[in-house]
Amino acid sequence: MALICGDGPQSPWHSPNSGRWSMIAPQSPCVSSRRRLSEIGAWHANTSPCKPSWGRDGKVPRRVWCWLLMAAGLVLVAPPGKVSAGPPAAGVSRGGKTSPAVPGAASELAVDVLELTDGSLFRGLVLHRNRRGDVVVAVEREWLRGTHSDLLRKLEAEEVQTVPQAWQQLHERLQEWRAEPDLSPKMMSFLDGELNRARQAQDRWRDGTDPAAVPQFVVVEWPAPGLRSLRLTTPQHRQLALLAWRENLADVSLRKAGSLDQELRHLGFDPGAERVNLSDRLPVRRQSNREWQARRAILGYTQQQPLDFQGTATRLMRTGPEAQAANAAELLAAALQAQLSQTLSDLLNPDVAGAAGGARSFAESALAQCRRQARQLQLAGYRATAVQLDAATGQSRVDCRFDVLIGPQEWVTAWQAGRQSESVRATPEARQRLREDPQVRGVLDLLAQSGLADDEAVAKALDVGLATQQLQQDLDAEFRLFLGHYGVHPEGPPLFLPEPVLR
Questions:
Q1: ∠ CA 337-343-349 to the nearest 5 degrees?
Q2: Coil, strand or helix at 401
Q3: Residue closest to 453 by CA, chosen among 78, 76, 75, 70
Q4: How far apart are CA 289 and CA 360, in angstroms?
Q5: What is the C-alpha separation between 355 and 325, in angstroms, rounded?
Q6: Measuring CA to CA, how many Å separate 205 from each of 164, 187, 198, 278?
Q7: How does DSSP classify residue 338?
């Protein structure tokens, strides 16, 4: 895990920032789109086990045509732009959930505190905690020098051996990769540059420790049996510690969060708005085969060809400049079919309506299709994003994941995140801006011609569309942060993958 700021669903390090990420936008509505809407109605009339009693006046109830409008929210936002690795920034969240650890309510420190079974205390930031309870911690080198000098001498003696070995391993792997056929010119240029970096690093370490390369932190691993307690600081306090280290404040590992906050603000910083990345201050480590294959997949996405899919949890379609034009009507039909099926079920079974609410995982069939296309393109990584809409509450949820191929048949999730909107009402100005978008206007015209919409329903659909767009932008920013850490250089910070399941 990268040494970064923030809090997240699987990691104590995640911090969302602004970005851009959106669903497929349709071309102008056409006859086939209108036909598709009528076919959906016919499908439900012909396949439902019994026809529901719509309303007392025989009209379609508001809840159903709200589904139609909010399903159209899947196409109410602009098409996505290219997501590049960019400069490393804050925040990353990865697949492979760590064992739960609750922040100590009484802790005012800006760092995590570990107590060993022998009573020793260590302060740092937890990078990873596996399901057995083993932890990997980044500890400030100078703090360790003043409190556990014997351990630091042992770790630094090991670094003299392990760091050059890590660079040599990386150089050999890059050479093998560079010798593969059918590499794109961009990838060849990238690998040539990284080979040169690895050679230079080896030269610096050949005669012993490179003083200029000694990082600020050491990485320490403790097995669960040796741990008595683990008190995690809050994400906000962790942000303060990282920013304070970046700005070279004194005694960060010893000070309370309030003291750091006061000094940082006095220096003119807004800690909550800063984007901090200290990943380059961790020592380089050897990588397992699984981690290396995952890094190759991430670098293939950033340096060779990105592969993105968007849609619903059950239907994902490829997007991007090299994909065929998305059939927006087909995507809308798939969304309507799934959402209306649930609505009809709720109407026919009111006692269990809403029991299946909440986040829905990606359907295996949808992911299998993504993976087939990735293999056809000889790519080992893809990003998938799905939108879920809730007409009853006016809420939406967006889930995003990045899967990598690390074995002949082994796909794992290297990063994932999700966000759910609150029930909000957009300003009239924001609604009008969205209405004026040519593609949005086309969708609204189509629904108006169907006779299912009134002004209130359109306003609600626009509110949901705007909220969903913001969720997508937030997740796109998080993904760019992930790429900033792992899609720039092949050594990068430690990458912790979901552990293989032993059968």
A1: 130
A2: strand
A3: 70
A4: 32
A5: 37
A6: 6, 27, 11, 22
A7: H
% of the chain with per-residue pLDDT over 90: 44
Q: Which run of H or E residues covers position 56? A: none
pLDDT recorded at residue 439? 66
Q: Count H helices, E strands: the chain?
A: 13, 10
pLDDT of residue 481: 81
The per-residue pLDDT of the chain, averaged, comes to: 74
Confidence class for position 350, pLDDT limits 50, 70, 90: very low
Listed residue (383, 382, 381, 421) closest to 400, CA to CA: 383
According to DSSP, residue 20 is labeled: -
**Alpha-carbon span 174 to 72, nearest angstrom:** 46
Greater confidence (203 vs 12) lies with 203
Per-residue b or e along 11-25, where b marks 16 or more CB atoms closer than 10 Å to that residue's CB: bbbbbbbebbbbbbb
Whether residue 356 is predicted with pLDDT greater than 60 in this model: the reply is no
Using 50, 70 and 90 to split pLDDT, how confident is the model at 285? very high
What count of Cα atoms within 13 Å lies in the side-chain half-sphere of residue 153? 5
- 395-405 sheet: strands from edge to edge: 316-319, 308-311, 381-390, 395-405, 411-420
Q: Which two tokens stand for residue 36?
A: 């598709």
CB count within 10 Å of CB 10 equals 20
Averaged over 426-442, what is the pLDDT? 73
pLDDT of residue 178: 97
Distance between CA atoms of residues 154 and 318, nearest Å: 51
394-408: string of b/e by CB count within 10 Å (b at 16+)? bbbbbbbbbbbbbee
For 197-212, what is the mean pLDDT? 78
How long is the chain?
A: 503
Instruction: Give CA–CA dist 45/244, Å, rounded.
Output: 63
pTM for the model stands at 0.73
* CB-based burial, 136-167: b 16+ in 10 Å, e otherwise: bbbbbbebbeebbeebbeebbeebeeebbebb
Q: What is the pLDDT of residue 191?
A: 97
